[in-house]
Amino acid sequence: MTQDPNGFDQEPEVPDAKASDSPAKGGGPDPDGGAADQANPSGAAAGGGAEGAASSGSSAKEVQEVALTAQLDQLRAAHNERTEDLQRLQAEFQNYRRRVERDRIAVKEIAVASLLTELLPVLDDIGRARDHGELVGGFKQVAESLETVVAKMGLSQFGKEGEPFDPTIHEALMHSYSPDVTETTCVQILQPGYRIGDRTIRPARVGVAEPQPGAKPSPAAATGDGTDEEAGEQEAAASKQDNGGSEES
């Protein structure tokens, strides 16, 4: 029988058990050790990642707090600005309201003064008619009603004889000298004056008298001794009459 050239009759080589075991016991890699070594690096990496995530989370929180603080400051500044604007507008409105009220009162006073100024000649005629005794009958009632109405509107009359002359409310039309006065005095009221409240709409037209230049008041008039002297003279005359009557009897 010829030998097979392909070598089918040769026995297969069996690997040595020692040789096969030596790599497992000796220098070959340990399966457990390799797995542990592979697990440790992954654990270290996981720990580092957690710390990094914690640090990144805290930094993000700080950034968010800073942003919120800045936004809160902006809101506070805007609120303060709006509050100041509102206070300024309120002050301007109060000033405007006071100015309008003042102007309204002034316009009313001007209108009333204009109306009453037109009625002053009528009041003068009523006064002259009263002085001459012509204010009677129905005309008297009408005149009194008119005077009541103008008094309710604030019109008041001033100017009397014997009061000191005041150039701010009096207009002197006549001037004279008199020994009976010690200062410039209104001795005649030619036309009464009128005022509304404290506002004079027409001065009183008067005749004034000044003290006589160089004249001095008599001591009797100054001290009142004249009255005593007159009383003494009267008593002396009465005593003389009594004495004469007794001698005749």
Query: Number of helical runs?
Result: 5
Largest sheet: 3 strands, antiparallel
Task: Please state the average pLDDT score.
Answer: 75
List the uncertain runs.
1-5, 17-46, 218-229, 241-249
Instruction: Output the helix-strand order.
Output: HHHEEEEEEHH
Range of strand content = 5-15%
Helix share of residues?
A: 55-70%
Name the shape in a single word: elongated
Distance between the termini: 234 Å
Give the beta-strand count. Answer: 6
SS-derived structural category: alpha+beta
Radius of gyration: 64 Å
Instruction: State the strand order across the main sheet.
Output: 1-4-5
Structure commentary:
The chain is α+β, with helices and mostly antiparallel strands. It is 62% helix and 14% strand. The chain has 5 helices and 6 strands, in the order αααββββββαα. The chain has a 3-stranded antiparallel β-sheet with strand order 1-4-5. Strands 2-6-3 form a 3-stranded mixed β-sheet, with no helix packed on it. Strand 4 and strand 5 form a beta hairpin. The longest helix has 101 residues. The radius of gyration is 64 Å and the shape is elongated. 5% of the residues are buried. The N terminus and C terminus are likely disordered.
How would you summarize this macromolecular structure in one to three sentences?
The chain is α+β, with helices and mostly antiparallel strands and 249 residues long. The protein contains five helices and six strands, in the order αααββββββαα.
